[in-house]
Design brief:
The chain is α/β, with parallel strands linked by helices and 242 residues long. The protein contains eight helices and eleven strands. It has two domains: 118 residues, Response regulator (Rossmann fold); 100 residues, Winged helix-like DNA-binding domain superfamily/Winged helix DNA-binding domain (Arc Repressor Mutant, subunit A, Orthogonal Bundle), CATH 1.10.10.10. Helix content is 38%, strand content 20%. Strand 4, helix 4 and strand 5 form a beta-alpha-beta unit.
Length: 242
């Protein structure tokens, strides 16, 4: 997506009224919007069009939103995914994050909050690397190193040597928060706030735990006995660097 293009959003929800409302509201707020009533409909749209973000309902008849998110990630799709969940579905939200979703928003919600969440995800996604070799003059102070890995705080990218390791936008934000506080224990609540989260989110602490687990799988030799991203019992997490 170029800087002058309007982001193209795919809204996937089996609730006709909500889907139409979101399609209209997002369109009025500067987005190009397509919609799908279920996962099958969404797959057809994804096969023929390119999207900048998917707004995806968790509970739908047939293939669930979480299953669709997991399937997209398993095939290498990097399009950001924002899940829509019910307040009581904490486990579904956690499962969605484990499946590779970038963020979630609990129903009922204010449409304006959805726009803010989408804007935040798109800003993070826009910082992914463009082409290898570009912007090679990034300052050393902007790169945090641990073992063979390096995290660029300017471009929000994780590398192992020359290899780029894909992170969801939520994982980018969490690793950035830990990297900026490296060597210091940071509570789950603090991390959630540093990631731009809602302080009253009832699932915030568990969500952080899920994202930490996903991060460890990407750079720890043994995620169950982490060397770099460690738990400080009863206090939070700390990232140790070189």
């Amino acid at each position: 997506m170029s800087k002058t293009d309007q982001p193209h959003i795919l809204v996937v929800d089996d609730d006709d009224r909500l889907r139409d409302l979101l399609t209209r509201y997002l369109g009025e707020n500067g987005f190009v919007v397509s919609s799908a009533r279920d996962a099958q409909d969404a797959r057809a749209s994804l096969a023929g069009l390119q999207f900048d973000l998917i707004v995806l309902d968790v509970l739908m008849p047939g293939e669930k939103g979480v299953d669709l998110a997991r399937s997209l990630r398993s095939t290498g799709s990097t399009v950001p995914i924002l899940l829509l969940t019910a307040l009581s579905e904490t486990e579904d939200r956690i499962t969605g994050l484990e499946a590779g979703a970038d963020d979630y928003l609990a129903k009922p919600f204010e449409p304006r909050e959805l726009v803010l969440r989408i804007d935040a995800i798109l800003r993070r996604f826009a910082q992914l690397p463009e082409t290898d070799g570009e912007n090679a003059d990034i300052g050393a102070q902007d790169v945090v190193r641990f073992g063979r890995f390096s995290f660029d705080l300017t471009r929000m990218t994780l590398r192992s040597g020359e290899d780029h390791i894909y992170l969801t936008t939520a994982e980018q934000a969490l690793l950035a928060a830990l990297a900026k506080q490296r060597g210091q224990t940071t509570s789950r609540e603090q991390l959630h706030a540093l990631m731009g989260g809602n302080a009253i989110d009832p699932g915030a602490s568990r969500s952080i735990d899920v994202q930490v687990t996903r991060l460890r799988r990407k750079f720890e030799e043994d995620p169950k006995q982490p060397r770099y991203l460690q738990t400080v019992r009863g206090r939070g997490y700390v990232l140790y660097t070189d």
